UniProtKB/TrEMBL annotation:
Signal peptide: none annotated. Its cofactor is pyridoxal 5'-phosphate. GO terms for molecular function: calmodulin binding; glutamate decarboxylase activity; pyridoxal phosphate binding. Belongs to the group II decarboxylase family. It comes from Sesamum angolense. Its EC number is 4.1.1.15. This is glutamate decarboxylase. PANTHER family: GLUTAMATE DECARBOXYLASE (PTHR43321:SF3). GO terms for cellular component: cytosol.
């Protein structure tokens, strides 16, 4: 959400040419109008102004889905008024989100037993998912440090500098730099963790010809305050997959030598719904023991409209219980772990539609 900085005192007005039959006076731009107006007029005014937006079907910039089948659009419209957080009121929606979490966890080879349910949650996108995963690592690390009687105030995350696009754009042509600045400044998500959750970011610098995190350098930068190494499966810059398998090997060795237990998070925002289908033999997920959590964007290659992401944890032990919020909205206890409370349900429903509609084959 863009923070609005316009002054409330502005007396700018909108002129509604095609709604003038209904609205005879112009509308104040930044104040709620004094009177109401017919619904046809309100529609005409908003619709006409939105014509100046771009056409979503031509927008490929953020890899976010802009078309779904009419049957799914219908399901979305039928569920647009359901609040995701009213789990007792909408138990089937909750069940569909749980099915999605389990499907994704199995897709990523989480060691979930036949009688167990996977640990994960639907989010607004990968950004929220990454922040939740970061919080879980921070809490786990702090708990261990406290138990050992060691300081626990300077946590850090080691990651490739490709999460911070602006700083690396020098590596590219001027034209590509401009493209990146215009279209990709949304990344730097781990930067949000730094700002909001006070976790230092230790960046492995990119170099000419190598535009993802070098696992050897990353492991070298790990210290006793490192809460996790964050690898990216599908770099926003180039789409390239980082070598999570090598990272797992090198980090296992370092953990053995130092006695630390530094884990890995995989930001599979883009690659999470590509690698399992195109490169099933590639080991980047929970097949690697140090990978404790993975996020993926449902609204990118999960093929759902903007507003859905997922984070799954390897096991219950990887999500500290104190972070789980127990809501008791209409009766029974429902554990949740999200940054927000109320939100729409339709993207979750749409994600489930895509899973059963396309299947693994699709
Ligand atoms: C690697 C990576 N992580 C996270 C994100 C943020 O994803 P979302 O838009 O789902 O919040 C992006 C977005 O492009 C990305 O490329």
């Amino acid at each position: 959400m863009v923070l609005t900085t316009t002054t409330a005192a502005s007396d700018e007005h909108l002129h509604c040419t095609f709604a003038s039959r209904y609205a005879r006076t112009s509308l104040p731009r930044f104040k709620i109008p004094d009177g109401s107006m017919p619904k046809e007029a309100a529609y005409q005014i908003v619709n006409d102004e939105l014509m100046l937006d771009g056409n979503p079907r031509l927008n490929l910039a953020s890899f976010v889905t802009t078309w779904m089948e009419p049957e799914c659009d219908k399901l979305i419209m039928e569920s647009i008024n359901k609040n995701y957080v009213d789990m007792d009121e909408y138990p089937v929606t909750t069940e569909l989100q749980n099915r999605c979490v389990n499907m994704i966890a199995h897709l990523f080879h989480a060691p979930v037993g036949d009688e167990e349910t996977a640990i994960g949650v639907g989010t607004v996108g990968s950004s929220e998912a990454i922040m939740l995963a970061g919080l879980a690592f921070k809490r786990k690390w702090q708990a261990t440090r406290k138990a050992e009687g060691k300081p626990y105030v300077k946590p850090n995350i080691v990651t490739g500098a490709n999460v911070q696009l602006e700083q690396n754009a020098f590596l590219y042509s001027r034209q590509f730099q401009l493209y990146l600045q215009e279209h990709c400044h949304l990344v730097g998500l781990l930067g949000k963790i730094r700002k909001y959750f006070e976790v230092e970011l230790k960046e492995v610098k990119l170099r000419e010809g190598y535009y993802v995190m070098d696992p050897a350098q990353a492991v070298e930068m790990v210290d006793e305050n490192t809460i996790c190494v964050a690898a990216i499966l599908g770099s926003t810059l180039t789409g390239e997959f980082e070598d999570v398998k090598l990272l797992n090997e090198l980090l296992t060795k370092k953990n053995k030598e130092t006695g630390w237990d530094t884990p890995i998070h995989v930001d599979a925002a883009s690659g999470g719904f590509i690698a399992p289908f195109l490169y099933p033999e590639l080991e980047w997920d929970f097949r690697l023991p140090l990978v404790k959590s993975i996020n993926v964007s449902g609204h990118k290659f999960g093929l759902v409209y903007a507003g859905v992401g997922w984070v799954v944890w390897r096991s219950k032990d990887d999500l500290p219980d104190e972070l789980v919020f127990h809501i008791n909205y209409l009766g029974s206890d429902q554990p949740t772990f999200t940054l927000n409370f109320s939100k729409g349900s339709c993207q979750i429903i749409a994600q489930y539609y895509q899973f059963i509609r396309l299947g693994f084959e699709g």
